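Late entry, written up from scratch paper. The run itself happened at the end of the previous shift, but nothing got recorded in the book at the time, so transcribing now.
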Amino acid sequence: MKSCHRLYEIDNILPDGSRTYGLPALEGGNKHPSLRSISCETLATLIRGKFSHTINSFRIIDARYKFEFDGGHIVGAENWQHGEDEQFISAFLPPNPLPRVPDHDPHSSVKRDILIFHCEFSSQRGPDFYNKLRARDRTLNQHVDPALHHPEMYLLHLGYKEFFKHFPHLCEGTYTEMIDPKHESDLRKMRAKSKSWSGGTIMRTGRMSRLHL
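Output as recorded:
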């Protein structure tokens, strides 16, 4: 009950009521108001380690097709491919729910582990992954609601295109568009695989990033 009350009483509270968000939210212009979005400037600051007093580790989930990711991606990002959603879910969620609702100080200084999702524009594929994981997390922990394994997740506003435009030095490679004519056959193959997709992935590259003081 205490955690549920916090959701209504405290501004900027995480969806499990455990504490407040560690990164500033994007103000205005968000196409997905139900998802917590951050600007490319905030992500660049995070990668540079300037949130090390708040963030313990972060994972950047790139939901673009493999040929897009191979053409260029944010440093440290991991690529999850559409197809078999259970592989994606099982990689992020344990089989068992949390034992109880977390009872933390909402203004706690304890560092947290966060997830950041994006695709080319963060208009569909990135939000789909975000929503799929949150929905399964809710279902898994429904008996200890509002507890979540991953309460702190973000969507990168305007996606990789915007990030590469402003911070190419924080990317590996360049920028390959989804509709790049050179990858027309790759796109057809990936879209064919995605027709039966219900929200997930079949492949990953990259690893969790940790901040160091």
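The CA atoms of residues 7 and 45 lie 28 Å apart.
(Scratch paper discarded after transcription.)
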